[in-house]
Design brief:
The complex is a heterodimer. Chain A is α/β, with parallel strands linked by helices. In chain A, about 65% of the residues lie in helices and about 10% in strands. Chain A has helices at about 15-25, 70-80, 95-105, 120-125, 130-140, 155-165, 180-190, 200-210, 210-220, 225-240, 245-265, 275-280, 285-320, 320-330, 335-370, 370-385, 395-400, 405-410, 415-430, 435-445, 450-475, 495-525, 530-535, 540-545, 550-560, 565-575, 585-595, 600-610, 615-640, and strands at about 5-10, 30-35, 40-50, 50-55, 85-90, 110-115, 125-130, 140-145, 265, 480-485. A 7-stranded mixed beta sheet of chain A has the order 2-3-4-1-5-6-8, with helices on both faces. Chain A has a two-stranded antiparallel sheet with strand order 7-9. In chain A, helix 25 packs antiparallel against helix 26 and helix 28 packs across helix 29 (about 615-640). By secondary structure, chain B is an alpha+beta fold. The chains are: A alpha/beta, B alpha+beta. The interface of A and B includes residues 94, 382 and 383 of A. Strand 10 of chain A pairs antiparallel with strand 5 (about 65-70) of chain B.
Chain lengths: ~650, ~80
C-alpha cells in the first residue's frame, strides 16, 4: 500500500515559507484558492524514501485568532483536517514573535517540527541560536535551514519520516500564571463531553480570550460554560487591570520572550546592515517619495513599453491567421460569428493579458518579495486615510491605472473582506490604460492635455468621495495600519515567477469565458442590426440627457468589452478620422467622462464576481453606470450653463 | 510620565502602559484591532523604540520585540507609554 504523509507548512509572513514550499515540491505543485475564499491555497507533493508526502502551504499569519480570513482558514484547516505534522517555519532573526506563533500551534496539540529558517540572516544581524536548546525546551524537533540556498531541506524531510515512523510526540502546551491556569482547568471541566471538535484546553483558552468562532460553537452545545467564562474573564481583568484577551496574549509573549532570550546570543554588530541603509532612504520624507515616484514610473514605462511591443507582435501574428480561417469558414454568417465573436475576443485577451499582465505581476511580486511594497504603504498611509483606507490599499489603486483586473486581484493584500471590497470598488473607478487611450485620444488630442488632466482630477475627487461613502456605509470594524516592515532582501526569482504564472492562469480562467460569451452576444446583436435599435431605445438617455449623438449609444455598449474600442469604433461609425468635425468639444468631454466612469470592462466585472461574489459585483456595476450617466448629464448641463465652449 | 506613542521622538524608547482602543476615545476601533496589536507583540509592559515617523501625520515605524512594525498614527495615538530615558 502507498504510504502517504500529510504535512502542513505554517508560519508568519515574510519568513521564507513559500521558498521552503517551492524547495520541497519543485514542479509538483498546484496553486488555487481555498474553496469559496479569496485566499491562495498552495498544494504540492513529493516522493521520499518510499513515501508520498503531501504538502499544503498555509497562508502567512502572525496568530491563530480570527483577525483575518487567513488566520481563520489556517486554524480551521489544522483543526478539521488534522495533518500528520505541521512544519512551523520560524524566522531565526525575529525569534520572539515567531515563537509566539509556535506556542499557539502547540496549544492546538498537533505534532510539530520547527524549521528554523534564515539562520544566515540572523547571524548577519549578530543573532546566534542554540537550536538544540530550543528543541529541548519546546520538546519539538528543530532543523536549522537556509531555504533560499536549499540548506536543511533534506534534514527536514528526514525528521518528517522519522517522526511518522516512530510516532510524533504531541508537544506540551505552555502554562499560564496560576490565576489563569486554575480558571482554564475549571472551564475545561465545564466543556468536557460537549462534543466540540477542538482540543479541550484550547477551547477553554479561546472562550476566555473571547474568540467569536469558538464562542459561537460553544453557545450551541454548552451555553452555561460561556456565562462562566465571562465571569472569569472579568475576574482576570480585575486582577491584572487589563482586558482578559490582552492578559493571555501578553503571557504567551512573555513565555516566547523568555525562551528566545534563553536560546539566542546577541552579539553587537558594528556595521549598519545594507538593508537598514536602503530602509532609511526609501522611507525618507523627501527621497522616499522621489524613489517611490521613480519606481512607479519605471514600472509603468517598462510594462507599457514592453507590453505595447509584445502586444503588437502578438496581434500581427494572430491576425495573420485570419485568411486561413476565412478560407476554412467561408464568408458567411458563421465566419462572422466565429471570427468576429469568438476568435477576436480570444485574440484580445491574449494580446492584453500576456504582454501587460505578465510584466506587471513580475515586477509587482519582485517588489513585494523584496520588502519595498511595505515602504510604499508606509509612505502613503496618511494620504489613503483620507479616503477611508490605509496605506496598503495604495498598491491596488496604483495598479488600477494599468489594468483594473490585477488591481481587483491585488486587493487581497488587505486583511479584511470589508477593506477588500472598498479597495476593489475604488480601483474599478481608476481609469485604466484602455480608458486613458480614450481620454487622451479624444479630449487630450482635440481639447488639449489640460482638459484631459482635469478629467483625471475629477476622477480622483470621485474616488475620494466614494471612498468616504463606502467607509461610512459598509458595516464592520474600522481598520488601521498595523504592518510588519520586513528587512529588505533579494527577491527569490523562482517564487516570483511561480506566483506570476498562477495569476496569469487565474486571469485567463476568469477572462476567457466572459470575453468570448459577451463577444458572441454583441456580435450577434450587431449582425441582426439590433445594436442600432438599442441605441434608439437608449436615445432618451444619450441624446436628451447627455446631449450626445444617438450613434454613441452603440459605443457605450461595445465599450463594455474593451474600453479602447469606443475610440477606435467612433472613427468607424462617424466615417471620419477628424472627430472634431462630428463632435462638439462638450460632447467629447461628456463622452470621455462617461467612458471613464461607467462599468469597468467585462474582464474586470468577471474578476469582481470572483473576488466579491455576484451580488456585490453587480451592485458595483449598477452603481457605476447610474452614477456615470447622472454625472455626465449634470456635467453637460453645468458646462452649457457656464458657456465654456461657446 | 505617561504619553501617547506618537509623542516619543525618534530613537526614544517607551514601555507600554495601556492601550485605549475599543473604548474611550478609541471607540471607533473594536476588539479586532486590540487583539491584532497584542498579536503583533504590543502588550502592556512591552518596550517600543521609535525608528521614524512618516511625513504629513503618517504612521510611525517602531522597533518591537526584535522587529520593525508600522502603526497608523490614529492607532499609535491611543497607545500610551512610560518614557524611558
Amino acid at each position: 500500500m502507498e504510504k502517504r504523509i500529510r504535512v502542513a507548512l505554517a508560519g508568519n509572513a515574510n519568513v521564507g515559507k513559500s521558498v521552503i514550499f517551492n524547495q520541497l515540491t519543485g514542479l509538483h505543485q498546484h496553486i488555487g484558492n481555498w474553496p469559496g475564499k479569496t485566499v491562495e491555497k498552495a498544494e504540492g507533493e513529493l516522493h521520499f524514501k518510499g513515501y508520498t508526502i503531501e504538502i499544503i502551504d498555509l497562508p502567512g499569519i502572525y496568530s491563530l485568532s480570527t483577525f483575518s480570513l487567513e488566520e481563520l482558514i489556517s486554524r480551521e484547516y489544522i483543526i478539521n483536517e488534522r495533518p500528520d505534522v505541521v512544519i512551523n517555519v520560524v524566522d531565526a532573526s525575529v525569534l520572539e514573535r515567531n515563537l509566539f506563533f509556535t506556542l499557539q500551534l502547540m496549544e492546538l496539540e498537533i505534532p510539530l517540527i520547527i524549521a528554523l529558517n534564515q539562520v544566515d540572516v540572523a547571524e548577519r544581524k549578530g543573532i546566534k541560536i542554540d537550536y538544540r536548546r530550543l528543541e529541548e525546551i519546546l520538546g519539538v524537533p528543530t532543523v536549522p535551514t537556509i531555504a533560499i540556498r536549499g540548506k536543511g531541506i533534506h534534514e527536514l524531510l528526514f525528521k518528517v519520516i522519522e517522526g511518522f515512523e516512530k510516532g510524533f510526540r504531541k508537544p506540551a502546551p505552555i502554562k499560564y500564571g496560576s490565576e489563569i491556569e486554575t480558571r482554564i482547568k475549571m472551564l475545561e471541566e465545564a466543556l468536557r463531553g460537549a462534543g466540540l471538535r477542538y482540543p479541550l484546553r484550547w477551547a477553554a483558552i479561546k472562550i476566555l480570550e473571547g474568540d467569536e468562532e469558538v464562542i459561537k460553537e460553544v453557545r450551541r452545545v454548552r451555553p452555561e460554560a460561556l456565562t462562566l467564562a465571562e465571569k472569569m474573564a472579568k475576574e482576570i481583568e480585575e486582577i491584572h487591570g487589563h482586558p482578559c484577551p490582552t492578559v493571555i496574549t501578553s503571557e504567551r509573549y512573555e513565555v516566547a520572550g523568555k525562551i528566545a532570550r534563553e536560546v539566542q546570543r546577541i552579539l553587537p554588530t558594528i556595521k549598519l546592515p545594507l538593508s537598514d541603509k536602503i530602509d532609511y532612504l526609501t522611507t525618507h520624507k523627501v527621497y522616499g517619495y522621489i524613489i517611490m515616484a521613480i519606481t512607479i514610473l519605471v514600472t509603468f514605462y517598462a510594462v507599457f513599453g514592453l507590453g505595447n511591443f509584445l502586444s503588437e507582435v502578438l496581434t500581427n501574428v494572430l491576425y495573420g491567421y485570419e485568411t486561413i480561417f476565412v478560407g476554412i469558414l467561408g464568408s458567411g454568417l458563421l465566419r462572422d460569428l466565429i471570427w468576429g465573436g469568438v476568435i477576436e475576443g480570444v485574440i484580445a485577451t491574449i494580446t492584453i493579458a500576456l504582454p501587460y499582465i505578465v510584466p506587471f505581476y513580475l515586477i509587482l511580486y519582485a517588489l513585494e518579495d523584496s520588502g519595498y511594497l511595505a515602504r510604499i504603504a508606509f509612505l502613503m498611509d496618511a494620504f489613503m486615510h483620507k479616503i477611508g483606507l490605509h496605506g496598503k490599499a495604495f498598491i491596488p489603486l496604483i495598479l488600477g491605472y494599468g489594468c483594473n483586473v490585477p488591481a481587483c486581484l491585488g486587493c487581497r493584500i488587505m486583511e479584511t473582506e470589508r477593506e477588500r471590497l472598498i479597495a476593489g470598488f475604488l480601483s474599478t473607478l481608476i481609469p485604466c490604460a484602455a480608458r486613458s487611450v480614450v481620454i487622451l485620444g479624444l479630449v487630450g488630442k482635440y481639447l488639449g492635455v489640460e482638459w484631459a488632466l482635469y478629467l483625471y482630477v475629477v476622477d480622483l475627487a470621485i474616488v475620494f468621495i466614494f471612498g468616504r461613502i463606502a467607509f461610512k456605509v459598509l458595516p464592520g470594524e474600522a481598520m488601521a495600519l498595523i504592518m510588519e516592515m520586513p528587512d529588505y532582501k533579494t527577491p527569490h526569482l523562482k517564487t516570483v515567477i511561480k506566483q506570476t504564472l498562477f495569476r496569469l492562469e487565474e486571469f485567463l480562467k476568469i477572462a476567457f469565458p466572459v470575453i468570448v460569451i459577451s463577444g458572441l452576444i454583441i456580435k450577434a446583436m450587431d449582425l441582426l442590426n439590433v445594436l442600432y435599435i438599442v441605441s434608439k431605445i437608449m436615445s432618451p438617455v444619450t441624446v436628451v440627457w447627455l446631449g450626445l449623438p444617438e450613434i454613441l449609444g452603440v459605443l457605450l455598449i461595445l465599450g463594455v468589452l474593451r474600453k479602447e474600442l469606443t475610440l477606435i469604433l467612433l472613427a468607424t461609425l462617424l466615417g471620419s478620422q477628424n472627430l472634431h468635425e462630428h463632435l462638439t468639444p462638450l460632447q467629447m468631454l461628456t463622452f470621455s467622462l462617461i467612458v471613464m466612469l461607467y462599468v469597468p470592462c467585462v474582464a474586470t466585472i468577471a474578476t469582481c464576481i470572483k473576488e466579491f461574489g455576484w451580488k456585490k459585483a453587480m451592485l458595483i456595476a449598477v452603481i457605476e453606470v447610474f452614477f456615470a450617466i447622472l454625472l455626465g448629464g449634470l456635467f453637460y448641463r453645468a458646462l452649457m450653463a457656464l458657456e465654456i465652449f461657446r | 510620565m505617561e504619553i501617547p506613542l506618537t509623542e516619543l521622538k525618534e530613537g526614544e524608547t517607551g514601555v507600554i502602559t495601556r492601550i485605549e482602543i475599543g473604548f474611550g476615545r478609541g471607540w471607533r476601533w473594536g476588539r479586532g484591532i486590540r487583539k491584532r496589536l497584542a498579536d503583533m507583540g504590543l502588550t502592556p509592559g512591552t518596550k517600543v523604540t521609535i525608528i521614524r515617523s512618516a511625513p504629513l501625520n503618517g504612521p510611525i515605524e517602531a522597533h518591537v520585540r526584535g522587529y520593525k512594525l508600522a502603526i497608523g498614527r490614529d492607532i499609535a495615538e491611543r497607545i500610551f507609554v512610560e518614557v524611558q530615558r
